[in-house]
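Shipment paperwork, digital attachment
Item: protein structure file
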Amino acid sequence: MDLSWNHNAHYHDHLLRQVPDHCVRALDVGCGIGRFARLLAGRCARVEAIDPDPAMIEQARERTPQRLGVHYSCAALADYGIAAGAYGFISAIASLHHMDFAESVRAMAHGLAPGGVLAILGLYREETLADYAVSAAALPPEWAIGAGLRAARAATGVASPTAGLRSPVPLREPRMSLRQIRAAAQRHLPGARVRRLLFWRYSLVYTRPIPP
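Attachment content:
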């Protein structure tokens, strides 16, 4: 059992599968303590990771071996100055609902090289019967996994991956429903694929077209 499991980490493998082959440069937006950025460093030659919370960036740097070469910056997406076509892959995990959706996805898409991929793992506001049904379906595995993790951590003495954080991860309820997210994605990222996921998440994957 992965003792560092959480709702976002459950989908890290899904996000890593979206990384294009031979990706040179990647950006992780809202990196938190850097867990996904460290995984991404195994797939891309250079990884940049940003977060506006200085405590998160400090923790990320402390937890990241220098050999991985992840470059952390304390910055919000709007202030980072993404160069056009600079990245083969951009990720945003549970961070987009803290930002303006349209401005943020346009900025990230602007930063993709032709053939580059934007992969978002996001949260949505429950609105429909289908939303509530999927949320209800997530509860039994949530309880089972949580109980198993607590027992395993108690038996092994392994702490939670967020143990020792000097600043709590900021929380904000998502404002957009999945219906609104799909509509906005089609307006700003034509061809983007939006999927509802378990554990109150969705994925959005967009590939920048390669000019003919």
